[in-house]
Design brief:
With 208 residues, this protein is mostly helical. The chain has one domain (3-192). Helices cover 67% and strands 2% of the residues. It has 9 helices and 2 strands; from the N terminus they run H-E-E-H-H-H-H-H-H-H-H. The protein has a two-stranded antiparallel ribbon with strand order 1-2. The chain is globular. The protein starts with a helix and ends in a 5-residue tail after the last helix.
Length: 208
């Protein structure tokens, strides 16, 4: 598994909820069958592999530090007994504000990794315009995701709540997709282009 595949798979585990039991008592006593700490361990392993690969000229020291912080934050929040004490239950706005606060390391991790990949892709000779363009847009997307919740919830702008939630889901989903999409690039620690066996090439119809 390539470094970016590990990171993407880890983020899939982090982003997808699988709550059990279905009808807990009390109502807050449910666990996530896809524990976020396991996802972040995969992410950390991917960043470490990316950092150690001599072909990947990416400065990911701060990215790795943010992955470790996200892992540390995710551990107590997996336990409902601690989550119940830490997350405010007074009103929806307080709950959303706390969730935004604890998700800051994850958002900063994704923003900085996207920015690093986009910058290195643009500086290559020749530049990898596909990667630079996609991850450049994702960098701006994560910047918006970082700011919008503070405006929507902190500023009590109710009209922004639904667009904010949609933006968070869209940007994170696109980030995971493009990590999988570009993971084979050697300068990102990947195995290189997928080789097509000669027998299959002969079977292909001629373009002449």
């Amino acid at each position: 598994m390539s470094p970016l595949q590990k990171i993407a798979m880890g983020l899939v585990i982090v982003l997808l909820p699988a709550d059990f039991p279905h009808h807990p008592h009390p109502a807050w006593a449910f666990y996530d069958a896809l524990p976020d700490p396991i996802g972040w361990l995969l992410v950390v392993a991917g960043v470490r592999a990316l950092r150690a690969d001599p072909r990947a000229d990416l400065d990911v020291d701060v990215v790795q530090w943010l992955a470790w912080v996200s892992l540390a934050v995710s551990v107590p929040l997996w336990f409902p007994q601690l989550n119940h004490l830490l997350v405010p239950k007074y009103n929806d706005a307080a709950d959303a504000s706390f969730q935004w606060f604890v998700s800051l390391p994850q958002t900063l991790f994704s923003l900085l990794l996207a920015r690093t990949i986009a910058r290195v892709a643009a500086e290559r000779r020749p530049p990898d315009r596909f990667v630079a363009g996609r991850f450049g847009v994702l960098t701006w997307g994560f910047g918006a995701v970082l700011v919008l919740p503070a405006i929507a919830y902190g500023g009590h702008v109710d009209a922004l709540v639904m667009p904010t939630l949609l933006a968070i889901g869209l940007v994170n989903t696109a980030f995971v997709y493009y990590l999988f999409r570009v993971h084979r690039r050697e300068w990102l620690g990947g195995p290189g282009p997928l080789e097509v066996p000669a027998a299959q090439q002969k079977d292909r119809p001629s373009s002449d």
